[in-house]
């Protein structure tokens, strides 16, 4: 079989050359502007296995905050290897009493996998305002459809840990309280569009650093 | 030219037959189960021009309600002709003082076209909780990106009318107050996930018919 | 509640930073090359509410022309805020006797909303060459499936106004007469591929400024 | 190695069962209604290799007709194996002087591969009415972007044969002359929307069997 | 505020009715035929929170088999709630020495999250046959681009556990050895298309229960 | 009709200007970085009909190699006109005894059209490891679903020629033997993940130039 090795070698080389631009993956070049489908791809010469591995979810997030919880994302901005591949991930840490407040992901559905602890999780349908919520234990998974309001609460006696994945490299995260109370949206606009009392709005603006 | 007419005729007929199943459109058969991409298509023999025309947006919605406003949808459920075509529409009527409360469309971006009156409209980004809002006049259009919280308020002295279109036949509509206060989501879950005071939650549950 | 404000503040800031690149929207940077999915996004720092509002549809188009009609587009080139969001818009003005000639949008379906006047509109299916047309009045909407030949004619006694939206930021517009008669496509190629008489072709080339 | 065979066997069987519903392909069940994404899938038990092979393009189409040409499609209606796979095919036969008249595919881009003969092919852009056309020889391929008017003419001295493929299982085919002249679209609507003379319209309606 | 409660109530009810068909989610009705985009949706009345929760990943898979490993899927067939939502999940259990053999997912990219143990994982690019592999520890994640050959090996001293998610409700799984050696693909075809020796092929066919 | 020509001319010009950026096509600018959806578009001024025509498939590939076969691609890297259009092509030449070895296209389905000769072609499903293969003759077409292992063998007495098209401008090509034996993937990893004997692996690594 030795004799046709040279011929084959030529064959291999020519293939390597011809297909050099085939796009198996598209590691994000974060130094360039992104577009509607994601970031431009890094050249393959600048890609290594470390482009596809992310260790940032290995460390617990800091839960010493008002919500006693932390979301550590591995979206395209943190993990450029997911660019263009329709998926990303995050880690949720919830201390005792911790809560991931009511929020939406405008651009993705989410699967939650409980690694440790007990979490009460739910979402609200838009069709009929039906609330779907349940207490989840270690090993349970739950799906949250794209764009719907949902929440996770540590309902156990110890801390809880979950791994989440999203159907987009860039799912977005709109936390209701931040959207309403942590910016300069005038109190009058908040009350008019939510029917909340002005005192309630001003109180939460105070807590969350909002103005107006 | 008369002489090759018979030959051509055969040609035409055979084409009609061959392409009878080409899918130019897919008028929804609402009697069947929908799927992730929409409803099964009606047979072409059951389709007429009226499948593609909808007159339900020609009548003003009833604004004699708490929000002094009405949304009249022409989504796939009302207007089966849009099934599978990536677009739908609605009409907004806002009486003096009327407001379309804070809401999201989980499945579509929206363009608002002001036909009459003056509307203050805005949305909140998830990236940095930035509020983008402006007073719009007749002829102005505004785009609301998919899944983000947004609102419209009649900020003029007369009634306002707008036409909206969506980038999906089935955009969804999640009105924040309905999601939080018009169902059986327990008050404790609302307060825990939104930091609203229980009294505020109970008050709005009372108004909106929610329980729990 | 004041006491945990500092902690929360840190929380907020870190979120702002972490999610700074989340893509809620992608306002087109028209100075850069577009790609198959649209234009690269402007940096958020260069985006304001005016990126999402367009007033160009507020002014009637000039109908003093051969078709007594005007199409005023708000596609991505005019309205960069729609980039990547799957939707765009336009305004149609039709003077008495005005007509939007037979045309297609290669990249989008269209919804027409009649604001004023009476319009006879229709499209032709490819499956069986069936013509679907109807006289539309104020408030009616009609859907035109992607890529099919369609037209709009002012069939009333006064001027007509319509708002249209498309299922793409960049729907394209191929006007049949322009495609056949307003360029340098040789007359012989036109007659061969359309069976029109050469005299007819040359006459319309004359009117529309075509050559060949 | 014999000893662990039983264990492995169990492993295999359980995999076969678990993944029985994985959708590698979705051969169209043409007896059911299609939807926006195509036809429901046949059960795998009803699928054989013949579901993925089509011999209908092996026979020359009948070119004894007015256009001296024939299009033999292998779209989903003829070749159910392409359902859901984003591709389909057809065969073009052009006798001496044959022409595939000006047409569009509303739902797909097309690649033309010349197997035999010489074909003058072209398309017209919508952006600027630019005509792109060229004489193609054996082995040449040409791409026609989705939804744009295009044509193919046998410009050689012998018959021509081409294979075409499309970026959709259901590309559609709207032949301009059939759309305008082979149905009951009233002559007045044709003249108004195309600026063609009534005499020209009536003449072609006569040839193509149109009425009105 | 009590006085306008009745009016509001009507408003709520009419919304519930109008939007009853809005598609927030599409829980698979597995009793019906699937299509290219997934299964038809169950009626909302048949949906409960249990449609969105799956506990099957909470139990370790049986690793008493030749590969000392198990894949427990939560694809649409096992977890109907993910239908149409662009995501699914699975659990990997690897005993000491366990291996998930070389395989592809024809329809999805994959993220692997190491919960316990040490896993050597890698994939091979098609562009230049480059191998990207690395030893992953607890908390690491790795992305495997769609359709590329990849593998996971327990390279630690204890058992390993990982959670994986996919960018499709139906990612597919083609295990190389099963495809080549566990069916009736004739040995001659295997040797011709893989250059493996016939003796090697026959040996593995023997182990895996293949014939031919 | 001459008299309104000037007015029309203005109309034409203004349209040309307004729609100059409409994206009918997006010829790849290969000098720029690609992204998840393809390459940035060349400016229209740099596009000619030659951007849409490719002659590289007109010449037989060199089959003087170990597989007695050649694949000549017209993917986006060779044929920039297909960028963003969802389709590409290639030519297969198989000398007597030639074979396109077991491979996958991670990003596209494929249609094979037999122009000359006799080819035995097949693919293996992932769902149940079912092999679908058949001997194809001139004029037959076969569809290979995305991402599945497949092969083509010249099973006739003369050379064979086929034209293939893909449902992506960038289908990718992962040849099994190259992936396993033509790179630096350590022999031990190959044997562990494929159950092949080390001798077999080393033998093929020798032939294909692999190391490790």
Automatic annotation (TrEMBL), chains A, B, C, D, E, F:
Locations listed in the record: Secreted, Extracellular space, Apoplast
InterPro entries attached to this UniProt entry: Cupin_1 (IPR006045), Germin (IPR001929), Germin_Mn-BS (IPR019780), RmlC-like_jellyroll (IPR014710), RmlC_Cupin_sf (IPR011051)
Provide the Cupin type-1 domain boundaries. Answer: 55-202
Q: Which residues does Mn(2+) bind?
A: 103, 105, 110, 150
**One GO cellular component from the entry?**
apoplast
UniProt-listed SUPFAM superfamilies? RmlC-like cupins
Protein's UniProt keywords contain rRNA processing: no
Superkingdom, natural source: Eukaryota
Q: Does the keyword Metal-binding apply?
A: yes
Q: Which residues bind oxalate?
A: 105, 110
Q: Which UniProt keywords apply?
A: Apoplast, Disulfide bond, Manganese, Metal-binding, Secreted, Signal
Q: Where is the signal peptide?
A: 1-20
A single GO molecular-function term is: manganese ion binding
Cystine connections: 26-41
Family assignment from sequence similarity: Belongs to the germin family.
Name of protein: Germin-like protein
């Amino acid at each position: 079989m030795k004799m046709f090795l040279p011929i084959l070698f030529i064959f291999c080389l020519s293939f390597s050359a011809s297909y050099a631009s085939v796009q198996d993956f598209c590691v994000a070049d974060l130094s360039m502007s992104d577009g509607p489908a994601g970031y431009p791809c890094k050249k393959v010469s600048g890609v290594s296995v470390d482009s596809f591995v992310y260790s940032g979810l290995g460390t617990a997030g800091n839960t010493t905050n008002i919500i006693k919880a932390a979301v550590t994302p591995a979206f395209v901005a943190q993990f450029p290897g997911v660019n263009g591949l329709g998926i990303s991930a995050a880690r949720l840490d919830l201390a005792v009493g911790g809560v991931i407040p009511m929020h939406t992901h405008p651009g993705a559905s989410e699967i939650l996998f409980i690694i440790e602890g007990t979490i009460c999780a739910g979402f609200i349908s838009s069709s009929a305002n039906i609330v779907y919520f349940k207490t989840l234990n270690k090993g349970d998974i739950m799906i949250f459809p794209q764009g719907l309001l949902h929440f996770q609460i540590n309902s156990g006696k110890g801390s809880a840990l979950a791994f989440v994945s999203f159907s987009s490299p860039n799912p977005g995260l709109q936390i209701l309280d931040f959207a309403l109370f942590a910016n300069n949206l005038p109190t009058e606009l908040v009350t008019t569009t939510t029917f909340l009392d002005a005192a309630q709005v001003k109180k939460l603006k105070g807590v969350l650093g909002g103005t107006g």
